[in-house]
């Protein structure tokens, strides 16, 4: 009878240990998922900020080429050359700058 109790206790301890081990695995999985989610959010926020900064640079470039540069080169060219240069610069498309991070 005493032997059966010991075997029963050992089985019970083994079951408890297995439950503990499974719980630890689950905690580790949840912690890993939380770290990944946090990293994804950090990358997404960085991507949004970079996109905003690139938009500002695009606008500055466009203004610099379409307005400031045109005004400056008008003094160097005359007649149809000046007009053609002005039209070309004003119709130039803005380069498409994209954030290097892909979310």
Helical fraction equals over 70%
CA-based gyration radius: 34 Å
Shape summary: rod-shaped
What fraction of residues sit in β-strands?
under 5%
Structural class estimated from helices and strands: mainly alpha
Low-confidence sequence ranges: none
Number of strands: 0
Q: Average pLDDT across residues?
A: 80
Order of helices and strands: HH
Q: What is the end-to-end distance?
A: 65 Å
Count the helices. How many? 2
Q: How would you characterize the largest beta sheet?
A: none
Layout: helices, strands, pairs:
Blueprint: H1 2-73, H2 79-91
Helix pairs in contact: 1-2
Describe this structure in words.
By secondary structure, the protein is mostly helical. The chain has helices at residues 2-73, 79-91. Helix content is 83%, strand content 0%.
Structural descriptors:
103 residues, mainly alpha, 2 helices, 83% helix, rod-shaped
Provide a short characterization of the protein structure.
The chain has 103 residues and is mostly helical.
């Amino acid at each position: 009878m005493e032997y059966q109790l010991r075997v029963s206790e050992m089985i019970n301890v083994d079951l408890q240990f297995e439950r503990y081990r499974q719980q630890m695995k689950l905690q580790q999985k949840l912690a890993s998922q939380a770290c990944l989610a946090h990293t994804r959010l950090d990358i997404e926020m960085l991507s949004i900020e970079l996109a905003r900064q690139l938009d500002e640079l695009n606008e500055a470039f466009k203004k610099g080429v379409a307005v400031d540069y045109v005004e400056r080169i008008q003094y160097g060219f005359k007649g149809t050359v000046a007009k053609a240069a002005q039209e070309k610069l004003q119709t130039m498309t803005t380069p498409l700058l994209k954030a290097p991070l892909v979310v």
